[in-house]
Amino acid sequence: MTGAAPLLEARDLSVTFATPRGQVHALDGVELSVHRGETVGLVGESGSGKSTLALTLLRAIEPTGGEILFDGQAIGHLGSRALKPVRRRLQMVFQDPYASLDPRMKVGRIVAEPLRAHAYGDRARIAARVAELLEQVGLPADAAGRYPAQFSGGQRQRIAIARAIALEPDMVVADEPVSALDVSIQAQIVNLLQDIQDRLGIAYLVIAHDLPLVHQIADRIVVLYLGRVVEEGPAEQVVARPLHPYTAGLLAATPTVDTAGRPRLMLKGDPPSPINRPDGCPFHPRCPIARDRCRSERPALVAPDAGAARRVACHFPGEVPPPLAAGA
User: Global pTM?
Assistant: First the structure.
């Protein structure tokens, strides 16, 4: 994918909400790209801005500043009519399969919604496509005549996935697609998403707080903290050698990630308020390697070495706190 133009790109993207207490900076200068056929994992704690970013990329939330480009076209300020062909190519799977499906509609009608909205064909053609989609996601044909309440959580997420891929989009944004499901079902949904990608070449932006999940399916990982990207790079490299202390802390908090031979850097405290953000590096109040420079100067998101495939927003990338390095 080197040298190819991104399918989806965010440039200096910002979202600010006005509240009685002040301005909430939900996103602050986010830089993000997803290429055709690629899976990018977006990780961070609750409140980091992951879901806000997803909804902004799909224009469900209006950006305050910056640009959103899809296949080279700026879409950040398009009207609903101009956005319609983009929506056909850019779909979403939501976190909660219990809330994302209308309980009053039968499954066949739910899956057919995007087909009807984009004039896919007559009733017979749409019915045939719905049957094909249900088979692709592992549901029986008679599912079309039943209501969402008659299905389990995993089956409902399969319905949501069928709806998202109905028009064979170029990209799907999946916001915590398995977090509401039992652990035994999560792997099945992940495998289904990968099978669909292999068959259709769809690009994914997968949003999660679960680093093992992201490591399993993503080509690249982007780490978000307080509305800012603090690290990004190839998934294997980010997990094997995190360059930002926040990424190292996320990994240390995940017992199923192999951190053998690496000091465990545990996160302490809660993220600062997005209304009263600290000066300098936003992570410095929780960072075990913070120095005076971190408290006064905001680090840029840059490659730590010339030609590196990674970027990190840290003045001292890759450093380990001395007490941890000493085995304390």
Answer: 0.89
